[in-house]
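HUMAN: Forgive my ignorance: could you write out one protein's sequence and backbone structure tokens?

ASSISTANT:
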Amino acid sequence: MSSKVYVVDTNIILNSLNNLFRLSQNGANIIVIPETVLIELEEKKKEIGEIGYQAREFARLLARAKMKESSHKDGYKVAKLLIDSLVIHIFSIDRYESDVDQRYINESNDKRIIEVALVAQKYYRGLKVSFISLDVYARTFAYLKNVATETLRDDKDEVPEFGKIKTIELDESVALEALKNAPIIEYDKEYRSGDFNYKFIEKDGKISYAIVVNGHIDPLKETEFKGIKVKPVNVEQKLYMKAILCDFYDIVVVDAKAGTGKTLLAFSSAMRLIEKSRYDKIIYVRNSIESLDKGADVGYLAGNDEKFRVYNMALNDTLEHIAKKMLKKSKSIDSVNAVENKILELISKYRIEKLWPGEARGRTLSNSIVILDEWQNSSSKTTQLILSRLDDSCKAIIIGSNRQIDNFYLNKYNNGLTVLLKETKKEHNELKLYAIELKKAVRGKYAEFAERIFL
């Protein structure tokens, strides 16, 4: 017999399809889906980006279902489905007490879903029935109807610090020159997985910064950024770029404030790696609530439909900045055409491609630096989809800011960026992960002011 029954709100599925499997506990619990949730998901299927993707994922899951039983009770119907070990019961009530008012459609739908929870309490006598939702208003409506409610546990998690720079004071017998390739444990007895970035201070006040590579200290050297299109200007940026250029790390994850140069430095580093023939191309994946799931060949080149323009502006701004830097050095920045031509040259030379998250299915990415941008707006499911497309010849750079989450169905505890940041605290057999936080705005006084004032 199942131990628990979960009546799920639409937002639980749109947050991540994996939530259904987590709640199911390998078939031990029953997942109840009200027909109102199905209707809302059907509407969301048409949307673009992360939300539409999750709705379509659920439709694919439902298409695999096997009908086990259908029963008609007094005033409601139940369809019982089995999908692998996932037990789903779909409830439909013949007549709802809640009238659908188009002016308050969301509130009406919430009340209809809670009506199903009330019916489920009668149907599953002897089992604990809980309504589970991310929406505090929906949960409040449920409280008023005396329905047990829950939310996802992950929105109560603590978010540990990631990528901080640890400070180590050296004794008089140690010179900075001795740090190179030395085991980090010799200087930091409290070293743990997830300690990547260090500041070493000599007794005379001299300072050296380093990252940890395979358990050993790799100090920063100014010469290692020679030939870079856009060079790092502060310590955090230098450590970030050093980790990207390093062969040891497969995935570099950065949580950064606006204006810290995270995307620009990722591209600049990626271009350098291609110049060194370590990779063949750059693939840019940008996820936000307005991302599109169409057009494998969609870029921002002239001739594309105008509706794609907004989704390419971030990439275009990055390449424009690099192009202007290069033209300024060559003293040939004399026209708009010169910048546009230089951008086209960069696209061709570095084989820059844009990939929408929804079109990654079925693809295999090879010999590529894959830049995943705005990843605070991606779910774990989307992150799994993209990373599972990469073969062993790739490097991934994951960029985002947990201060700028635009996806209503995600939060700073459960989005794809945070999930990966948490994984950087652990050792993994398959891949080597690195993390850093960028806090210093370099875009200018407006970005710095906004980050300071609007906390």
User: Anything to note?
Assistant: Residues 158-219 form one domain. Confidence is low (pLDDT under 50) at residues 290-308. The two ends are 49 Å apart (CA to CA). The CA atoms of residues 194 and 326 lie 36 Å apart.
